[in-house]
Amino acid sequence: MLKNARLALLAGIAGLAMATAGTAQAQTSSDESAAILVWPKVVYDSTGTLFGSPTDTLINLSSTATSSLKQAHCFLVNATSHCSNSGEACLTSASCGGGVCQPGWNEIDFNVYITQEQPLAWLASDGMSFNDLPIVGPGICSNQPRICFSNANCGGGTCLIGPNGQNNIGTGIPPVPEDPFIGSLTCIQFDPTQNPPAPDQSPTTNALIGEGTIFTAAGSAIPVDGAKYNAVGFRATADAGADTDNVLQLGTPAVGGIPTADYTGCAGTLIVNHYFDGATDPVATGANPSGNGLTSTSLTLVPCGNNLLTQVPGSVVAQFLVFNEFEQRFSSSTRVDCVYNRQISNIDTPNNNRSIWSTGVSGTLTGQTRIQGVGNSPSGNGLTGIATLSIETSTASSSAAYSLDQMGTNAGDLLTIP
Length: 418
What we know:
Layout: H1 3-17, E1 36-44, E2 55-63, E3 70-78, E4 81-83, E5 89-90, E6 101-102, E7 106-114, E8 119-123, E9 139-141, E10 147-148, E11 159-160, E12 181-191, E13 198-199, E14 208-217, E15 224-230, E16 232-234, E17 247-250, E18 269-275, H2 282-285, E19 294-303, E20 306-307, E21 315-324, E22 329-337, E23 340-343, H3 359-362, E24 366-374, E25 383-392, E26 397-403, E27 405-407, E28 413-416
Parallel strand pairs: 20-28
Antiparallel strand pairs: 1-12, 1-16, 2-8, 2-14, 3-7, 3-12, 4-5, 4-6, 9-10, 9-11, 12-13, 14-15, 17-28, 18-24, 18-27, 19-23, 19-25, 21-22, 21-24, 25-26
């Protein structure tokens, strides 16, 4: 499938249908290094219980620092819901046989040590144990040409492991805690030279860059399909002083003209250009107007602010404005607690064909959805996320994940860490 051609066609149709006035530039980034990274969608389903096909997520984390070791302090959030009557994982209450699909939320934190200009990658299902780490020894003693594994082997010298003494020792990445699993991942750049380590405010901050790839067993024509997206980045601000507590301010407004934010903030509005569910992709069908090429889009949203110290997730009401190609407007809303992952035609109703995101209701193939977060959560009302386009044919499915467009800036969010 020509994923780039499909997305270019979609963007062109939506752009012709709805011209957007000049807007302020949002501050989060998905194409440059940052000090905080968020992977909004991390999923694992070995048997296809929730997603219809076996699914796993490959996480890529890299450091762009050219001369120093960097520490990423990461939080894996488990947002898997479970049936109240059976305890089985679920997406909606319809699969619970009379029970209620109750949302879950808890987090596991871990550290990743990354040497200069080093990439690391792991599957959500496997994590990364000590034996998987690329740079753990042996080293060379600083005071004698002797192989070592620790300073104790060097008789008063230092055991230098890895380039410039940098190594991955101390890294321990756990696998996701259950199968099936739905969640997100947040990694904050720390300065390992401080004692205790703290969020990095050194000149080489903003050194993390990441990607996520969702692999799915797709069918006979395409055995495995991969949908890749860039992690959402929050850059440490040049004007803020060194962070002295565990409350990280994302995009907090200036006070008296003096910036107070520790990191750049979330967008005021998220914009999704998409096919309406049930539309037929003209690139997939070509000259053959068959039933192949049916499209669907899933939307994943996470609050920008969370209290990871007390394990209280951010809670934001997402308001949706949906426009078709004739600029007719529809609206809806939903609550986003922790991680919201839903096919767009199930946001407003369990019946896909009755949804405002259905091509039969909207009346056009493509459209645009604008999303704003509202509410009075103590951690703020900012949102970020990704969208995933899927194309179904008679032999396989093909998908592409992509970042959301942004407009304006949010008032500010708080990320509280242990």
